[in-house]
Specification:
The complex is a heterodimer. In chain A, helix 4 (65-95) packs parallel to helix 7 and helix 7 packs antiparallel against helix 10 (198-214). Chain A is globular, with a radius of gyration of 23 Å. The longest helix of chain A has 34 residues, at 2-35. Chain A has 13 helices and no strands. Chain A is mainly α. By secondary structure, chain B is mainly alpha-helical. Chain B contains eleven helices and no strands. Chain B has helices at 2-47, 53-57, 70-101, 106-120, 123-137, 144-168, 172-180, 185-214, 217-221, 255-263, 268-302. In chain B, helix 1 (2-47) crosses helix 11. The longest helix of chain B has 46 residues, at 2-47. The chains are: A mainly alpha, B mainly alpha. Chains A and B meet through helix 1, helix 4, helix 5, helix 6 and helix 7 of A and helix 1, helix 3, helix 4, helix 5 and helix 6 of B.
């Protein structure tokens, strides 16, 4: 009787754990099945090469390039902020700051990641853009630059927190050896600790990249939602996520081409982030084996 | 003599660079913190004056000075309740299984890889999945239930990961002592592992709920309405069986969506409303996260095995 009960409980717990796999299957399954009909009307070649994305206009054009362009542009700006700042902050926290201060500073830094993204959108639109306009007078009210900068600040904690963990797990005797041959703290950080923690740091970058790719509200609010094939960050643009928000706000009949187009966009985003996640996973594994 | 001077100069130079680097590190930390502070101050300066009793008890309106967030905070509250109700039992159960039962085989490997992967999937794809699955395939409509389920699935990985960490921190001696007294595996978990790890689990629950309360994109995707001037059906009624669950099927709006809606209007008066909503949202998430950090450090100090 007791053994039966134990088995039953184990089975229930297993089902709970397995349900997380169902979520993934659900996401991939729905995204694929809902976007397949799209490719009956639009050829894959058009989708990948057309330079305009106007699925809701009278003469619809379905080229994903402008959306990809906007997505990469905002991601790159965000990373230009987040990677140097995050890495330097992580090295500082792990090599310079006393552990007791670190325990206070790290959680405060992590609060940056807790702020709701819609609040960051407000900040980008009504604080950062007017501020930037003082420096670049030609800057429009909606632009990718301020959205990217704000996303960058937002993902600093993702980068710094994981990098710091990786740096701290570098064994102390490596540092001592470096100090013993007369290296300064900075030399130790750059020549010993960062190379030793490299794969951990890279996987932190990867997480930052996939956060920046998938970030929605900041770009939807501050970047202007206009699909625009440009590499000029002072112009408005649309990202994949912003497009999905824009279309979802309208009344969207089930099964229409507009409905299918958000699934196609979502699927492209998922494929992009999955690629990065897999690379990150591979690096993390390599990193763990080394220990 | 000259060599010694060279060495001294070299040391000086390196000390200077060391100092410069420390300064850069401090600056990037400060920059991040100052940004956070600026954000809070900017939002408060614009928004705080708008926060009063009427703001919480009025429905949205065409007139900015009469508009409030009643339907939004009620909606947020109902959705959090639904989210907590479906995500906590599932997440804790999954965490317990993975930490206490799972053997090292391909099934548990897949589950583990999958959880890491889920945490990296953009939140908006959860919204697309929910639109296709809950709204159209299962016909749950654009309701509080759909929204709660969507956010529940979204925060599931957070709860699983923190539950596992909390359980891992319990030393094996506790388990062995329990087995030695003749307890079964489940009894050990039920009476020892779960109570001792409840602090850590609670931290994860608070963090996941604070994430859920600020999440906007997946709810817009499932088709949340942005203008709602009524409340969901009250859950308690005067006649038998006194509770009803009709509210689960009602349409909703939440605070972040209300804020987004006001923000996308051109008139600055509505931006003030958006700022006020932002202050409320920010206050809630910061309090919840602060609480979680406090809990974590308290339990870490108190638990000395």
């Amino acid at each position: 009787m007791r053994r039966l009960r134990e088995r039953a409980i184990e089975t229930v717990l297993f089902l709970a754990a397995a349900s997380s796999v169902l979520v993934t299957i659900g996401i991939v399954g729905i995204l694929v099945t809902e976007s397949l009909p799209f490719f009956k009307t639009v050829s894959l070649v058009d989708f990948l090469t057309d330079t305009q994305w106007t699925p809701l206009f009278e003469n619809p054009r379905y080229g994903i390039l402008p959306l990809l362009c906007g997505t990469f542009l905002s991601t790159i700006i965000a990373l230009l902020v987040a990677i140097p700042m995050g890495t330097v902050a992580a090295a500082f926290l792990s090599e310079y700051v006393r552990p007791s201060y670190r325990e206070i500073l790290k959680p405060i830094l992590e609060l940056l990641a807790a702020v709701p993204t819609v609040v960051y959108g407000y900040f980008a639109l009504l604080f950062v853009t007017p501020l930037l306009q003082k420096v670049i007078p030609s800057l429009g009210g909606f632009n990718v630059l301020s959205a990217g900068l704000v996303i960058g600040v937002m993902i600093v904690p993702y980068v710094s927190s994981l990098s710091e963990d990786a740096m701290r797990s570098v064994p102390g005797h490596l540092r001592e050896a470096s100090f013993a041959v007369g290296a300064s703290r900075m030399q130790t950080a750059f020549r010993v600790v960062i190379p030793a923690a490299f794969s951990g740091i890279t996987s932190a970058y990867i997480l930052g990249i996939s956060r920046a790719l998938g970030e929605t509200m900041v770009v939807a609010i501050a970047a202007g939602m206009q699909p625009n094939l440009t590499l000029n960050p002072t112009e408005p643009a649309a990202t994949i996520t912003a497009f999905i928000v824009q279309v979802s706000l309208g009344d969207l009949p089930h099964g229409s081409i507009g409905y299918q187009s958000i699934y196609v966009a979502g699927l492209s985003l998922l494929v992009l982030t999955l690629c990065f996640n897999i690379v990150g996973l591979y690096l993390r594994k390599k990193f763990q084996e080394k220990e | 003599m000259e060599l010694q001077q060279d060495i001294l100069a070299n040391i000086k130079r390196r000390q200077m660079w060391d100092f410069v680097f420390a300064f850069c590190g401090l600056m990037s930390l400060l920059f991040a913190l100052i940004t956070l502070l600026t954000l809070i101050v900017d939002l408060s300066v614009t928004g705080v004056a708008r926060i009063n009793y009427e703001f919480f008890t009025s429905f949205p309106s065409r007139f900015a000075d009469r508009a409030g967030i009643l339907s939004a905070w009620v909606g947020s509250f109902c959705i959090m309740l639904t989210t907590a109700f479906c995500a906590i039992p599932l997440g804790v159960a999954a965490g317990v299984y993975l930490e206490e039962y799972s053997k090292k085989n391909w099934v548990s490997q897949i589950i583990e890889l999958n959880i890491i992967n889920l945490a990296g999937i953009p939140s908006i794809t959860y919204g697309l999945m929910a639109l296709g699955l809950f709204v159209y395939k299962l016909k749950l409509g654009q309701s509080i239930l759909t929204a709660g389920l969507t956010l529940g699935l979204l925060v599931l990985p957070i709860i699983i990961v923190t539950t596992r960490e909390a359980i891992r921190a319990i030393p094996n001696t506790i388990r062995e002592a329990s087995y030695a007294m003749g307890a079964s595996k489940w009894q050990t978990i039920r009476y020892h592992i779960l109570p001792y790890s409840s602090g850590g689990i609670l931290t994860g629950v608070i963090i996941s709920l604070s994430r859920a309360i600020g999440e906007t994109a997946p709810l817009i995707t499932i088709g949340a309405l942005t203008f709602i001037a009524f409340l969901p059906t009250p859950p308690i009624e005067g006649h038998f069986p006194f509770v009803n669950f009709k509210w689960l099927m009602d349409p909703f709006t939440v605070m972040p969506i209300q804020m987004f809606n006001w923000l996308s209007r051109p008139q600055p008066e509505f931006h003030v409303n958006a700022a006020a909503t932002g202050v409320v949202l920010l206050l809630m998430t910061l309090i919840m996260n602060g609480g979680a950090i406090y809990l974590r450090s308290r339990f870490r100090k108190k638990m000395k095995w």
